[in-house]
Amino acid sequence: MSEQEAADAAASAAAPRKRAAAKKATATAKKTAQAEKAPTGKKTAAAKKSPAGQTAAKKTAGKKAAAKKATAKKAPAKKTAVAAKKATAAKKVPAKKTPGGKPESRESRAKRAARLNEALAEVYYYAHPELDFENPFELLVATVLSAQTTDLRVNQTTPALFAAYPTPEDMAAANPEELEELIRPTGFFRSKAKSLLGLSAALRDDHGGKVPGTIDELVKLPGVGRKTAFVVLGNAFGVPGLTVDTHFGRLVRRWKLTEQTDAVKVEQEIDDLLPESEWTMFSHRTIFHGRRICHSRKPACGACPIAELCPSYGEGETDPEKAKKLLKYEMGGQPGQRLKPPADYPGRPAPPLPSRDPATEPPAGQSADAAAGAQR
């Protein structure tokens, strides 16, 4: 074999080994390249270190912070709304407090009640029940009929009624339709007729035809409540009691003597402020004032003879000339008619309000407690 042939044979034998080595080198190169691509976290960290990466990171962080602030602002909205409602409710609560912030004492309210009662007694010296009656039974019937109507209308209706049924026995035996027709002008005549028939039968059967003289027995009669019972007790039997009707309740609240709206609670609080002997007449005077001057919608503040004692002065018309047009005549006359006592009291005009001593009495609208604190 020549040298050339031997070399060719050696090369042919080495070729498979070279190809295997080349394949192995190629596989190793691929693995190395994959290993270099795998650690993306390192590349990301590196990218963050670059200026462009830092800018992007700052923008992302800014967006996240803004989103958190927006969420934080929206979250307590309910709490804010609840707090606002509580604050509003607290403002609306009418607390009986003096300018110093302390609750007004009973003594202070009692002094104001006494001054008001004294002033009303001077103005309405002729105050009396405005229902016409000659005996307790007639007063009881007239008071039941006075619900939701005027005393004037009742007084126009009762003469014919009492002529037809002068006693409880007569009224208990009345024909319901005929009774209804007689009392129709007073309104709600069917329900009122039912009450009159029921109370007349109870008087006949349980009380010997006589009106009882106690609150407990009166309120058991059909159609008779505490207001009606006290009208009868105070004016037919001389038993002191407060008549808490709509006029009375409205005025004692305006005078800051009570904040109660329930008639029984009003009665209890005012009872505690005045002597028992004054209860009946204080009711008459207050009701007179409510019907004539201190109206529900348009009080005639500018023509009120007790204005300087009223803590609520200014709720109505304060101009004297305009206020005079709001005054009402006795027994529900027309606005603008001259206010004067009835014909039973001729020649005696209502006297002016007695002068006050500024050194001993607080200004209008200020409690005695507050005035005492100011002096100290």
UniProtKB/TrEMBL annotation:
InterPro entries attached to this UniProt entry: DNA_glycosylase, Endonuclease-III-like_CS2, Endonuclease3_FeS-loop_motif, Endouclease-III_FeS-bd_BS, HhH-GPD_domain, HhH_base_excis_C, HhH_motif, Nth
How is the cofactor bound, in the record's words?
Binds 1 [4Fe-4S] cluster.
Question: What does the record give as the reaction this protein catalyses?
Answer: 2'-deoxyribonucleotide-(2'-deoxyribose 5'-phosphate)-2'-deoxyribonucleotide-DNA = a 3'-end 2'-deoxyribonucleotide-(2,3-dehydro-2,3-deoxyribose 5'-phosphate)-DNA + a 5'-end 5'-phospho-2'-deoxyribonucleoside-DNA + H(+)
Q: Which SUPFAM superfamilies match?
A: DNA-glycosylase
Answer whether the UniProt record assigns the keyword DNA damage to this protein. Answer: yes
Q: Where is this region: Disordered?
A: 1-111, 324-376
Instruction: Tell me which residues bind [4Fe-4S] cluster.
Output: 294, 301, 304, 310
- Family matches, as SMART domains: ENDO3c, FES
Span-the-membrane segments of this chain are none
Q: Which family does it belong to?
A: Belongs to the Nth/MutY family.
The entry's protein name is Endonuclease III
Q: Which source organism does the UniProt entry give? A: Streptomyces spirodelae
Q: Which gene encodes it?
A: nth
